[in-house]
Amino acid sequence: MENLLSHSYVMDLIDKISDTLFKKYTTYKKVERYIKRWQKVVRYEQYGYSEPEPIYNFYPIYKDDNQDKIDVENTLNQLSDEIIIQMAIDLKIEVTGVIYSIAKIEGLNKNDYRQAKAIFEDAIQKVYDKPDEAIGYANSALESIIKHILEQGKLDIDYNKKDTLYNLTQKVLKGLGYFPSKDVDERVRQIGSSLLNMAQSIELLRSEKTKFHGKDSTQYIIDDPLYACFIVNSVATLGNFLISFYEKKYNGILKEEESFINNETYDLIPDDEIPF
């Protein structure tokens, strides 16, 4: 992916990552182990009849000939902006304008929401080089979350797997008791209406402002990464709310943190399970 962030901003982020790594892992060897987990083979080079030589996305740089101490700043400086951002989010370092909520999807029932997490990861990969596709993937991820909730049968709501995001959102809100009807409390109705409007707007964006439905070159296509970051993050936040509310109410997930509902303290998604 092309590096699109400010160079000075990335340098500052690298400094924060370096400081955080040594505070968290304390030794050079542990810091090296963490950094090398981001190392991936990008291709293999064939030399004559010998075995193919792996070519990596980056190589550790060391401060000494014995390779006992990794040079963190110079090593990280080889990484793409995308990996730097992902590493910062993994270490819970604030990253301005970049997606926070997506990582948290993995916090509850990883196997159950594995598909949605994978689609959101695809969205992140495309935020900067293909913003419109990122929005399309986010839409698909939210659909996946809602379908999983509905297919469990605990909401007793019939649905069609071909339903659009807007229709799926209507049904899951009815099942959760948040559908904006005149029979519910005004505050609940306002929340439900906001969630429904959000889902409708996301669906319209994908249909009208992305290439997911074959838009031609004369029509405006979203091309601003900052806009895509905002949309994808918003979609992930909505997905997190639906997962958390459903899991708490129907699967008994209830842990302590700083959120309060009905005078109960609970952890929607544990911080120590944010891997991204």
Description of the molecule:
With 276 residues, the protein is mainly alpha-helical. It has 2 domains: 1-96, no CATH class; 99-276, no CATH class. It has 10 helices and 4 strands; from the N terminus they run ααββααααααααββ. The strands form 2 sheets. Strands 1-2 form a two-stranded antiparallel sheet. It has a two-stranded antiparallel sheet with strand order 3-4. A hairpin with a 2-residue loop joins strand 3 and strand 4 (264-266). Mean pLDDT is 78; it is low at 254-276.
Keywords:
mainly alpha; two-stranded antiparallel ribbon; elongated
Write the layout of secondary structure elements.
Elements: H1 7-25, H2 28-36, E1 41-45, E2 53-56, H3 72-76, H4 81-90, H5 101-104, H6 114-126, H7 131-151, H8 165-176, H9 186-209, H10 225-251, E3 259-261, E4 264-266
Antiparallel strand pairs: 1-2, 3-4
Short structural description:
With 276 residues, this protein is mainly α. The protein is 52% helix and 5% strand.
- Structural class, by secondary structure, is mainly alpha
Give the strand content: 5-15%
Extended strand count:
4
Number of domains: 2
Please give the order of strands in the largest beta sheet.
Answer: 1-2
Average pLDDT taken over every residue: 78
Topology as H/E string? HHEEHHHHHHHHEE
Helix tally? 10
Q: Compute the gyration radius: what is it?
A: 22 Å
End-to-end separation in angstroms reads: 18 Å
- Tell me, briefly, the overall form: elongated
Helix content range: 40-55%
Largest sheet: 2 strands, antiparallel
Low-confidence stretches: 254-276
